User: Fold this.
Amino acid sequence: MTSPSEDPPRLQVNPIACVAHGVCRELLPERITMDEWGYPIVDGSPLPADLVAHARRAVAACPTLALRVDGKLARRR
Amino acid sequence: MTSVLLERAPWETAPALPRLLGTGRKLAEHREAYGGIPLRTFAGEEGRARLIQEVTQAGLRGRGGAGFPTGRKLASVASGKKTPVVLANGCESEPASRKDKTLLTHAPHLVLDGAVLAAHAVGAEKVIICVERGGSLPERLERELAQRKGDPVKWQIARIPRRYVSSEESALVHFVNSGDGRPIAVPPRPYERGVDGRPTLVDNVETLGHIALIARYGPDWFRELGTQTDPGSTLVTIGGAVAQPNVYEIVPGMRIGEVLDAAGGATEPLGAVLVGGYFGTWVPMPEGWSMPLSHDRTGPGGVTLGAGAIFALPADACGLAETARITRYLAEESAEQCGPCMFGLPAIADDLRSVAFGRCGPATRQRLMRRIEMVSGRGACRHPDGATRFATSALTAFAEDLETHLNGWTCSGVSRDPMLPLPKARDRGWR
Ligand SMILES: Cc1cc2nc3c(=O)[nH]c(=O)nc-3n(C[C@H](O)[C@H](O)[C@H](O)COP(=O)(O)O)c2cc1C
Ligand code: SF4
Assistant:
């Protein structure tokens, strides 16, 4: 039941913390689209190296700190 | 993975049942039939490890819905650094299910013995029994606990709000920690960090009852029934158009028709059977008669026993109208914390209603499918996944009816009284 933390970095959203500000989509359209209610649909597959810095910027910009980048998989779609 | 067929025909296994039910309500009766808790058999570190090993070998899978291997969960909780806690999940928020309440009424001490053994296996000192508040069950359990002297654990009863999602494992942990019965975001999962930040074993009460029996009779005995991948016996609640709706103990691998026969058989021609409750799957009848039921997903719809609620829907009832009504209920039961659940489930319920009552065209169906796809997997808990699985299966099982409805015809079934049960008492708050 454990997922090794050396897994490749992924972008994930905490859906409880997210209140649909939408900043992340502006910063990372490569990985984030919006649903019809304005909530982000996040592509949680492993991030290629050239997107990691952008992803971290989106994480820092989220007003409710709802995003994270790490290897530990919270939910599988 | 489809389930392996029974090695023995159901009528041959019948004398071996019941295993769980009918063990005596009173402590004295229970001890008479089963003796004490076999803690000495599993003494010390070696004994604990062996108990986990035996549950693993038995192949027991969780009876709370997901069918996760219980031995693996025990091992994960036991490997934590802090002293773990055990939560016995007896909430049974599923409105079509009665099996946990029945078990806690007819064989409470089997569940309590199982909880003591599970606590022993993981090294926990405290067991919290979670039941929905209201009714007489919490008080009855208090009385039974007072009878049990010398259990090596500290007992506690938590009275959980009567809400569909408050019995989800992270919600139970949240409630016990802070009095708020809404799910929380994971990770960390309860088995890593739960009650008081400790590794927390959340097991369904029926699962604990099976642990009590495995500890006494061993994994080989457990495996005498059931399939290779889903051994043992399992409790189901059979409702709807059957002669004797009730809770039954059945054997995984039995076919849908045989399971209905256990409840006296169908009382009228059936259109479909709902397997697995309101997170479950509609199976069209009579085609589905010979589908084997177990905790392994079977067939293209991925049918599983889930938490064991089975409902027979007559051919002249409207499965779409029933699904629309229950999806509305599930939408109302959202904890409204996650956007896709809070907005998506009511939107899906609205679309289903329009479809069922013949006020829409093909565009509504497309929107409905898109919304289902969009919402699934995007909540903190699995509430949206369960609700959308249920809705999706209705669109498949009632595909022909759906065409009729979309062509502007309402079927006669919508005028029949609703059949699928909703809870009589519900709480609105979370505390
Ligand atoms: C919305 C929701 C409601 C749930 N309700 C129950 C419940 O009423 N009883 C239960 O045992 N498990 C329920 N579960 C499953 C629990 O989260 C947990 O997986 C289970 O209690 C673990 O026990 P088991 O491994 O013995 O099945 C629910 C899950 C979800 C997502
Ligand atoms: S998915 Fe729904 S029920 Fe689950 S935590 Fe989020 S809002 Fe609550």
Q: What stands out?
A: Residues B 62-66, 68, 89, 91-94, 164-165, 167-169, 202-204, 207, 381-383 surround flavin mononucleotide (ligand 1) (CB under 6 Å). Chain A touches chain B through 20 residues (CB under 8 Å). Chain A has a mean pLDDT of 87. DSSP finds two helices and four strands in chain A.
